[in-house]
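Model: Ready when you are.
Researcher: Fold this.
Model:
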Amino acid sequence: MKFKKTCSILLIMALLMSIVGCGGTNKTPNNDNNDAQAPNRTEITNVKMLEMEEVLMAQLQPLPEINTGDKIGALVITLTNPFWVGMKEAYEAAGKELGVEVEVMAAPTENDSKSQLETLQAMTAKEYKALIISPIEPFNLVPGVVQANDKGIKVINLGPGIDTEAVANEGGQLDGRICVDFEEQGKLAAEYMVEKMGAEGGKVAIIQGIPGAGQSEGRTLGAKKVFESAPNVELVSIQPANWDRNTAYNIATNLVQAHPDLKGIFSCNDVMALAAADALEAAGQRDGKIIFGVDFINEAAEAIKAGKLDGSIAYSSTVYAKAAVLLALKTVQGHDVDTVHSPLAIVTTENIDQYEGWK
């Protein structure tokens, strides 16, 4: 792989604390050679988003040349999920801001790994300088990565990881990576839930996404470690709902029937967390239970304001997509690149007012 596989743990901890904690803002280093090319962020009004952007821009120094008119393709998982709809919009906005053309495509459903590969293979026939791709699972896009390599198209992996060993075994490579720490997402959510339960503790459950998907496995592992190490907390169930709202609703319904004394549910995305909240409300079991999700989609934000959800782990689609496009431009322009990590934010009923205008 052309990009560096690791980056300083101390740096990432510092970056995470700048968003998750209550401290000040990290300042982007001066970059005299790129000041004229620095992306304009005047449309971002939320302070937390500005802080997150500064963290990511610091990792991307020196910034690439922008306004090049290059054509970049982005492959997301599916547009049936509100998070990926937000990413599509964010990619397109980033393209306009940075003076490049970004075209976004997706698989028809959340678990159609075969169609997603076929979409990627079709994209390699277009005149893209780079592709930013997010796989449904670690292996399904491997042939498409190799095909892009053969066409001389740079490949950036965003979010869920593509198995790099499998790519290398097929004679291919990734040119860059931008991600969030999925295990940390689960850890942060579970720590909040344990703290809210207090010394009394109680029974908790995890609703997963698709088994084997990187974000599902990482979030589950992070939460599981916290729950199992917490005194007086009993993890009674881990079940996959495959990112599906109806499946998550049924799982949550069965959970409260089997465990009416259940104290909390961590769901590996907001869609499933919202379904769990609906199920508990329908069963008359919502009061006194903590429900937490991941992604901070718009519906989750409204649910947190209303007290329907207790919280969500957030990272800004707007900033994340812009950083991915900048990383793609760096690879096209021959820069050496590191793996770029997006910091995270814990959004709860206590601090939701600080995230007004978040996107």
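Researcher: Now this one.
Model:
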Amino acid sequence: MKYNEQEFDQMLTESLLSPPPEDALVRVIPLKQAMNYVLIGMVLCTVLLNFAGLNYLLPTIGSILILLGYRSLRLGNRWLYGCFVMEIINVLTRILLLIIGTTIYQNEINILEAQKVLLAIGAISSYVQYFCLWRALCIVRKKASVKISLKSVVALFVFYVILGVFALMNYEGFLFLL
């Protein structure tokens, strides 16, 4: 079906004047895909399966997904940019730990100390990242004038602190009760 310029302009103005359907507004959430990447990445970094190399693969894929998500969100506010920077540090420490783990010198004392330092840097940057995420979501909530509780982000932070304590105690096993 062909339209001339006047008919096309008229159709265009009519479509712009009418509001979009209500279900379209509910379905379209800005940057939903980026937040999905972040959340899926957090799950992959949290769940560790110690067989078939999944203890290396899942956290690495999770870190990359988080990095991609924060890359899209980084211009939202300064706290989201902080999350992006902290995830860059996490990815770099994870890559360095993987490289160190593949060398024949991985059991030497100097390398073991370097691994401990890298693990500490990764843990600290993760905690800072979750704090930045909480602050970023507070700002987004305020801008949107939405009354949403951010207790889940605080619970996530507490969960990671508890996991950190268990890691320091060298506890291994299932933590499904948490």
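Researcher: Key takeaway?
Model: DSSP finds seven helices and no strands in the chain.
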